[in-house]
Structures are given as C-alpha cells and as structure tokens.
C-alpha cells in the first residue's frame, strides 16, 4: 500500500511542477506579447527624426547645448571633435549652488543634444573631472521623451564624473 501511495504522491508532485512551469511559460508569453505590442506602438507613434540641418547656428537653449551651433557637422563630412569639445566645455561652465557631493558641483542635468547624424570625431572627447549630472543625447526625439516623462526605447549616454581628490 505504501509504494502505491508514494507513486501517487510522486505523480501529484510532477503534475504540480508541470502546472507551475506551464503558468510561468504563459506569463512569459503574455509579457513578451505586451513588449512587442508596445514596441510596435512606439514605432508608429514616434515621428521619424529629421536629419539635422547644418544651418542651425543656435548654441544653447536653456540648459540644452547644441554642438551643431558650435560648428559640428552631422553629415560626417568634416571633423566635429573640436565643436563637441567646446560644447562640453560650456556645459561644465554651467553654475548653480547645488552639489552632488561636498565639493562636486551639480550641473543640474545640463544636456548636450547631438540632434542625430553621423559625426566624424578624430580626437578623444574628455569630460572634465569634478562635476556631474550631464546628459548627452544622440537623437532629438529622446529629448522630447525626457521632457514629457514618457518611456520609449532611447539610446543615450549617461555620464557621471567622479570628483578628483
């Protein structure tokens, strides 16, 4: 009698495991479907980003700096390294009274907006040490998403600069 009880218990255990795995598989499938649905919605909802015009000479708008205004070439025909370095330098000149840590200025989320494009950069771009809270965006639509607090697929570079002691 005991062996048949053990066999029955074993079968019940297998059935419970199979049910649990089936529920996990179903939840995973539902999650994957929702992700695909949201991804297809984002592709439809977001307008295509226009190629930045070379004629844009605006260097700054509020806390947003535009390397194109400093002479960066989004077509990649000319070197843009110096223009981007100048915009980074100006970003680190932004002053406010806030600090991330004692002695480490908070730049207040200053944004360097590359506005899309393909930039030819021949020299390294180095961010100054001793300050932080800088955002570099690659696409114009990512800035809109940040401002409206919507979450979409965004390619961005977040840079935190540690203090040099």
Explain this structure.
The chain has helices at 2-45, 81-91, 140-147; strands spanning 60-61, 64-65, 99-101, 104-113, 132-137, 156-159. Mean pLDDT is 73; it is low at 43-55 and 146-160. The termini are far apart. Helices cover 38% and strands 16% of the residues. Strands 1, 2, 3, 4, 5 and 6 form a 6-stranded mixed β-sheet that branches. It folds into 2 domains: 1-45; 60-159, no CATH class. It has 165 residues and is an alpha/beta fold. The longest helix has 44 residues, at 2-45.
Structural key phrases:
QRT3-like, 3 helices, elongated, signal, 165 residues, 2 domains, alpha/beta
Q: How many DSSP H or I helices?
A: 3
Q: What's the count of strands?
A: 6
Low-confidence stretches: 43-55, 146-160
Report the helical percentage: 25-40%
Shape call: elongated
Order of helices and strands: HEEHEEEHE
First-to-last CA distance: 76 Å
**Secondary structure category:** alpha/beta
Radius of gyration: 26 Å
Portion in beta strands: 15-25%
| Overall pLDDT score | 73
Total number of domains: 2
Largest sheet: 6 strands, mixed
